[in-house]
Give the backbone structure.
Amino acid sequence: MSLLPDSTSRHADTEAALLPALVERWSPRAYDPSAEVDASVIRTILEAARWAPSAANVQPWRFIVARRGTPEFTAVHDSLMGFNRAWADSAALLIVNIAEIVDTEGKPRPWARYDLGQAVAHLTVQAQHEGLHTHQMGGFEADALREGFSLGERFEPVSITAIGVLGDPEALPDALRERESAPRTRLPLEELVLNAPAAV
């Protein structure tokens, strides 16, 4: 009988004290296929995204929220490519993260993707705080989502977020099971901050 992973083993080994949700956040692929997310929790994580900062406060983010077992979920899942299809069907939710790349007058919104990224980060941290896990995906057919959800040219699907309750990694294919327990690593700050060590 397999056991769920010890979540503390996935905590970030940080060099400074961070918020618990940031330390505990990681991107699993094994989700509990029977777990559901309450509507009030979905609203809470979307509210976190709503209050993200954006250039000139234009808020150029939109979301498609697809619950497992709905036609919307099937449509989003069918757009996934590669290994993503092998595990994402167990997530409780698939959220399509969309940038409004031009305004209603056709003028470009040059910071829309950046702003969307901030909104998704807010959503991710709030979801972790709510006891959920998230996994961001870029491997999907954007045109299928454009057509399936009538997005038009103003809106660009940028990523998909799987959200759910941690599941059993033994249910994953071998290659993905190995990734689930692989050590977590990050580049040191000295490589990320271009004027280090003066700045940090």
The chain is about 35% helix and 15% strand. The longest strand covers residues 155-164. The chain has one domain: 28-169. Helices lie at 20-24, 39-50, 71-79, 84-87, 112-129, 142-148, 174-181, 189-192.
